[in-house]
Every structure is written in structure tokens, then in C-alpha cells.
Design goal:
5-stranded mixed beta sheet; Nucleoside Triphosphate Pyrophosphohydrolase; globular; 4-stranded mixed beta sheet; 2 helices; 12 strands; alpha/beta
């Protein structure tokens, strides 16, 4: 399924749903950030996805990172809650979702990077190489907040 992201765009369609999503800023021992290239929009992103019934948000993070990247992680702390009503995600099935993502720090504990149906590329990127990547502004915000002082979670 393809998607179109609208960010502070007056031409965005009105949202017709909200779904709890999670995402993770995963950094290795060298400080590199785990990124995927999304198959639904071609942009680079930190891994993440929707919370499923019967799981906690941290279980969802672990599952989503593993599914999208092949990397096993341990969730370490909260970065923030991202719920900008001006970030709209329109899917080709008619769903138009308002952003709602809880973002966490996570440490890699195993696994081997691999692509999935949701990721055409999985790579570790140094923070100073991020400007070279096509990353949506909402994901850049999550990364930026994750690299700042973690003592105060971000929220909108």
C-alpha cells in the first residue's frame, strides 16, 4: 500500500483515523542510527509501525524494528509523543491518518540487518550524514529530539 505524507500542507485531506504507532531511534556503539528506506514512499525513516492489540508499546517497538530491519533491540527510554494534527498520512485504501507516534530510544542486542516488505534498504548512518538522506520532516524531528538531552521527553 502506498502513502502520501502531508506536513503543514493546506491541501491535505481531512483525517478520518488515528492509530497508535511506535518508532525507535536505534543507535549502535559508534552512535550510528539505524535507518530504513520505506517501500511505501521511498523515504528514509527510523523503524516503526502500529501497535497491535494485546501488546505493550515496548513490545511493539521490539517487533516493528525486528520485522523491518532484522535487528533485535532493547527499549531504553522515551524520546517523546508526536501527535501533530498537521501531519496527515493518506493511504491509497482511503484511510487518512493523523500522526500519533510514541518514539523511544533502543539499543541493538542482536540480529543481522535485512530488508523486508516494508524496507527496501536497511543501513546504519552517522548523524552527520543524515542531511544527505531524503527524510520526512516529522522523522527528522524525532531524530533531533532523540539526539538532544533525554531527561525531558518531547510531546505535542
Amino acid at each position: 500500500m502506498s502513502r502520501t505524507d502531508y506536513f503543514h500542507d493546506p491541501t491535505a485531506p481531512p483525517a478520518n483515523s488515528i492509530k497508535v504507532a511506535v518508532s525507535a531511534l536505534v543507535q549502535d556503539e559508534e552512535g550510528r542510527i539505524l535507518l530504513i528506506r520505506r517501500t511505501d514512499n521511498g523515504k528514509y525513516s527510523i523503524p516503526g509501525g502500529g501497535l497491535e492489540a494485546g501488546e505493550t508499546v515496548t513490545q511493539a517497538v521490539v517487533r516493528e524494528v525486528q520485522e523491518e530491519t532484522g535487528i533485535d533491540v532493547r527499549v531504553t527510554e522515551l524520546i517523546g509523543v508526536f501527535s501533530d494534527p498537521d501531519h496527515i498520512i493518506a493511504y491509497d485504501d482511503g484511510e487518512v491518518r493523523q500522526e500519533f507516534s510514541i518514539c523511544f530510544h533502543a539499543k541493538p542486542i542482536g540480529g543481522t540487518p535485512r530488508q523486508s516488505t516494508e524496507s527496501s534498504e536497511v543501513l546504519w548512518v552517522a548523524p552527520d550524514e543524515l542531511p544527505e538522506r531524503d527524510i520526512h520532516p516529522s522523522i527528522r524531528l524525532r531524530i533531533r529530539k532523540g539526539l538532544e538531552d533525554p531527561s525531558t521527553p518531547y510531546f505535542t
